[in-house]
Amino acid sequence: MPGSGACTSIINLRYQDGREGSPSNPAKFNRQDHAQLRDACVRRGRPFVDNTFPPNARSLGQLYALTDILKMHHVDDEPVFCQGGASRFDFGQGVVSNCWFLAAVSSLTCNEQLTAQVVPMDQAFADAGGIFHFRFWRFGMWLDVVIDDHLPTLDHQLLSVHSNGVNEFWVPLLEKAYAKVCGSYADMNIGIPSEACKDFTGGVNMSYGLGEAHREGHNDDLWLSLTRASGCKSMICCGTPPAGETFANTVAHTGLVDAHAYSVTGVTEVEYNGSKVKLVRILNPWGEQEWTGKWSDRSGMWKKVSPTDQEKHFNRNDGEFWMELEDFCHNFNMVSMCCENPNFIDGDLTCQWKCMIYDGSWAAGKSAGGAIDADTFHTNPQYRIQVTIIDEKEPGDKNILLSLMQKPLLNRQNRRFYQIGLTVFKTPQGRLKAPFFRANFPVKEKQLYSSDRELIEQHSLEPGEYVIVASTQKPYMTADFVLTVYTKAEAKISAHDGHDDDDDDDDDHEHHGLIHPQALSFTVVVYGICTGLRGKKAVRHLPLIQNAAARVLTRTNRDECERFHSEAGDFPVFGLLVHHLEELHHTHDAPGKLIK
């Protein structure tokens, strides 16, 4: 296993000079300056009340009718901010269904450096003036979020997260600050841990489907990813599937909670009956209710391992337990790993990645062109990247990582995310217009669209120039987004995200090959015959076939045609299609008869 925390730090080109929004100089959320507000409260002798997140329905949402709002001194006579350092055992979940957030907090505490970035520890109730602050990464920049110390209660008990046995309040206050950036406490009902992990790190977030990995026999690959991520002190969270059509947190016969988020706090191997057994340590944010199967707290299997391995065993009702990797894959349906640095993905801890962050937007009728098969695809924001070198030792290595994150239009609970995707082309210079996309293949032929907040893709790019196109699956969708480009190789990046108002495809039709409807319908028919697809299913795969048809019909050189044939991984009968298209070409006097 790699040494803990051994990852080389990433170079963020956007914030390399320490400008506002960097970890060392976070932007002020709602333009509230913590130091100035605190000093003003101390001078006036009055505690701070946050008018931007007031203690009423505005901050509580639908929970307002259930609660009272109390200051810390009314909840506990001697409150402290944090006692003895932050620990994953400091807290337990309350009434609000935000296990996803608390699972991420549990993982956060496993990395002391990250915890200090998110939770400034130089805070105390005695000299705070009723004001506290926390830091989150939100959509491309770090924010400093100011709150007061009014917390929601029910019968004089904290409504949401509560401290376990001591009077410290750093987690309830952290929760309030995060509720503020989300919109309200009610906006934190239900979510996925990877979102909070991203907001705690600003790093790279990778998610894996456990059922699929297990069925396809990829347990060894999963274990390698878990050990690498753990060695880099990544934030690792996992989740159980719902028991039925609802997302009720029912307790299964295994002791696990259905539709529930957990954090992964460790991985190890033990010797058992002469064989190595892979174990995963998991924490329930409830602070109780544990797994009861093999390798659980009360399992007799721990008596049959070496004294050294027995030291890893504990028997306490704190929500933390061990599971064998096989059981982990069988009972959980997803795991996410988040780290400041992409090094945890391939285990190369010495590589110094660079990243560049771009703010962009899709505007209906201007720069929201939709998917690659849309006529308006070329109007989408475009970003040019020049890869200058590759790792000669690992020529096929994934040297580019792309993150596309869409910003919500509304508060978190009422947000709507579109299906978003990334398409990469090897390109000539300049902004690319419509004919280019009709006549060229993307680097990655299978296009993935996701309705999650963030889409992550890895690419292995040879030296050359490429264009990254950020798009929604449907055109005319208006939204803002953040594109982050991580480069392992030396690279230059520039944005071409404007819209060319004078873009007119008609001037280029003669040379770039729009297919005539007669040839287009023939293409669909031939493709349908070759693949057994009909109707809409055939049309769905049409863009790649259409591009190839355009090349054939305009009589590009033979080498190009052979390249289409050799690269047609998903189309084993591509050669037959090319043959038919060439025959179609020869039945006409000239290609111009088939092309507009």
From TrEMBL:
Ranges of residues in domain Calpain catalytic: 47-341
Gene Ontology terms, MF aspect: calcium-dependent cysteine-type endopeptidase activity
CDD domains registered for this protein in UniProt: CysPc
Keywords attached to this entry: Hydrolase, Protease, Thiol protease
Pfam families per record: Calpain_III (PF01067), Peptidase_C2 (PF00648)
Keyword Nucleotide-binding attributed: no
One Gene Ontology biological process: proteolysis
GO cellular component, one term: cytoplasm
Active site: 99, 260, 284
Domain of life (superkingdom): Eukaryota
Similarity comment: Belongs to the peptidase C2 family.
Protein name (Swiss-Prot/TrEMBL): Calpain catalytic domain-containing protein
